Amino acid sequence: MVRRKTLFVYEGLGGEELCVQRLCSCLGEWAEGTSFKVEKIHPEDILKGGWQERSALMAFPGGYDSGFLQTLGQEGQHMIREYVASGGSYLGICAGGYFGSANIEFDKGGPLEVCGARKLKFFPGHCIGPVFPGFQYGSTLGAHAAIVDIGSSEETKTFSAYFNGGGKFVLLEPSPDVQVVGSYAEVGDKPAAIVLCEVGEGRAVLSGVHWEFRGADLDAEDPNLEKIIPLLEESEKKRRSFVSVVMKMLQL
Questions:
Q1: Which of 6, 68, 203, 242 would bridge with 54, disulfide CB 3.0–4.6 Å?
Q2: Which domains does the chain have, with CATH numbers?
Q3: Rounded to a whole number, what is the distance in angstroms from the first to the last CA of the chain?
Q4: Where is the Biotin-protein ligase N-terminal domain (predicted)?
């Protein structure tokens, strides 16, 4: 029986407000009727410690991962790494996915370039993005309804997920600890969009797409989103099923 019942969502520098809200709502919807509960956790509380005994999940939202690095430093990252390796679970979406990879290449050679090694290393390869062009911080110019191939059954083989700046997960050599959960169906070599990583006794799911978002969560008055929202709404049933799949992967 699981004793840890709190699903923690990082809130602080680097976490985009809407992404934090939507991740909390998504996890809360899944947890309805269970004994799990969702709580936001600030970087100073992570560094203080004590959360590990209550945590069933540590989730990092979209935003920018350099903010996570700034607030948590090596100590905070080490605490999270140790928590997962000792049997905990980590969920990283978009920026949280970059953060959980060994190396990131974001807009390499471009004006928004952020490249370098990361300490968590749940995914022992590179997270490279944005996969689709046009991304700008604080904007929906690069937003896209990404078709994700999860190949689990004919009914849920593909679904459309909100995308805005996320990466693809690339291994330089095969790893027995990594399972590709979903791929970018529209991109030439169909790179990994979502991965499940075995980390010691724990698990991490990293995602380049925002499957925590419903079409209804986006601004219908935004011209950049008017063609995206209907595609997401068509996939809503599949999206909700996929949330449950991810929670099972995270041993929840």
A1: 6
A2: 6-249 (3.40.50.880)
A3: 10
A4: 7-252
Q: What is the pLDDT of residues 173-191, one digit of tens each?
A: 999 999 999 999 999 999 9
Q: Please tell me the distance from the alpha carbon of residue 159 to that of residue 214, in angstroms, as a whole number.
A: 12
DSSP the chain: -----EEEEE-STTB-HHHHHHHHHHHHHHHTTSS-EEEEE-HHHHHH--GGGTEEEEEE-SB-HHHHHHHHHHHHHHHHHHHHHTT-EEEEETHHHHHTEEEEEESTTSTT-EEEE-S--SEEEEEEE-SSS---TT--TT-EEEEEE--S-STTSEEEEEESS--EEE-SS--TTEEEEEEETTSTT--EEEEEEEETTEEEEEESSBTT--GGGS-TT-TTTTTHHHHHHHTHHHHHHHHHHHHHHTT-
At residue 4 the predicted structure's pLDDT band, cuts being 50, 70 and 90, is confident
Number of other CB atoms surrounding residue 203 within 10 Å: 23
* Whole-number Cα distances in Å, 243 to 4, 23, 63, 87, 203: 20, 11, 20, 21, 16
Determine the pLDDT at residue 152. 60
Contact 71, 14 (CB under 8 A): yes
Q: What is the pLDDT of residues 79-100, one digit of tens each?
A: 999 999 999 999 999 999 999 9
